[in-house]
Design a protein that fits this description.
The termini are far apart. 7% of the residues are buried. It is globular, with a radius of gyration of 12 Å. With 71 residues, the chain is mostly helical. The longest helix has 12 residues, at 36-47. It is built from three helices and no strands. Helix content is 45%, strand content 0%.
Length: 71
């Protein structure tokens, strides 16, 4: 069956929905955009999930996200 997901499926759906807007819009801080540090803190504070920034980047890539530099 493989490893148990670090992030439960219901929480994954909530996170993916939150990432469609800004951190401020979902009631998390004043950041205008998501970055790995903001997302890491959001997961810890809201869901008590601890992940490294590298693991978060891999998770996001698996879900179709890519990192870009702000312009």
């Amino acid at each position: 069956p493989g490893n148990v997901p670090k992030i439960p499926p219901a929480v994954q759906r909530e996170i993916l929905k939150a990432l469609q807007s800004t951190p401020q819009a979902v009631g998390y801080g004043m950041a205008a955009n998501w970055d790995s540090r903001v997302l890491q803190a959001f997961l810890q504070d809201r869901y008590h999930i601890t992940m490294s920034r590298g693991a978060l980047r891999k998770w996001l890539t698996r879900h179709g996200f890519s990192w870009t530099r702000p312009t």
